[in-house]
Amino acid sequence: MTGRARHHLRRPSLRAQLTTLYAGLALAVVVPVLLFAGFLVGRDQVRVRAGDAVPPPDAAAQQVDTALAITAVIVVVLTVLTAWWLAGRFLRPLRAMTATAQEISATNLNRRLGLRGPDDELTRLGRTLDDLFQRLDSSFAAQRHFVANASHELRTPLAGQRAVLQVALADPEASEAGLRAACEEALGLGERQERLIDALLTLAEGQKGIEHREVVDLADVAKGVMLSRRAEATRRTITVQASLGPAPISGDPDLIASMIGNLVDNALHHNVPDGHVTIATELTDGRAHLTVGNTGPTIRSQDLRRLFQPFQRLGAQRTQTTDGHGLGLAIVQSVAEAHGAQLTAHPRPRGGLDVTVRFG
User: Structure pTM?
Assistant: First the structure.
């Protein structure tokens, strides 16, 4: 038989398979009983014939055989019908679940199966599917929210660039200095766009997972990040304190550098004048730890979860300044999850945040 022919063969329905199973089990018990009953009747007839002077006619034996045959047919039919009914009753919740699941789509994920009944396998399967639909609904909602925010963030600098250039071109008496200033402002908006696109790509890379691993020392990466942010810290009058002990891990060097860079940037940008940033790396019980803390505004515990979502900031839903793109902590969480690391964040009582990433 060719592969094409095998492909077109249809497997019997689950109800037919269950009916066959139930009927087969029942008949496996009933048929031997009927055969044994026929054997007993035949033996009694033999005894009667042995005691009679004249053998009885064969009509009685034929009647007994006919009765047994009719009984066997009735038993088989009733067994098959009962098995068919039992299989249908057993599969009724599964058919309802299948019909409801087929009606649920990406645009109707708020619907649930809501299967009720005894705590059996089908009920647990229904609850599992409801949990799956809940996660899918949340995932699609988060995706739509992310796309809307990303569109807004990308459109804002584009609109700013267009406005700056239109104003400069509409002025017939624009000076060279004015045109230069307009071009510089347009370039600044373009750089903001590039930073946002780079951040989106980094976030996508972190969510995709790690394809390349090598040994990376968190201390060396943190030291390089500190050197690259020294001018920014000086401009903001922020003191950076470091305690960098060896903390080797196996991971993606670029993603690790992006994670530490975003943690330090977040600590610098969301700080106060004459504030502090602390960076520490260490190896404890064979596990590498990275901790970045900063002084800054007071953060409520209920706001922590939101801050690690894309385009979320303390006290604002979207970007209201050009400082940052709202993806820093989301990238940190994405990279930590890609490396199987545990991320914890604790607000400081006097303001600021301590973020710890534990690897291993």
Answer: 0.59
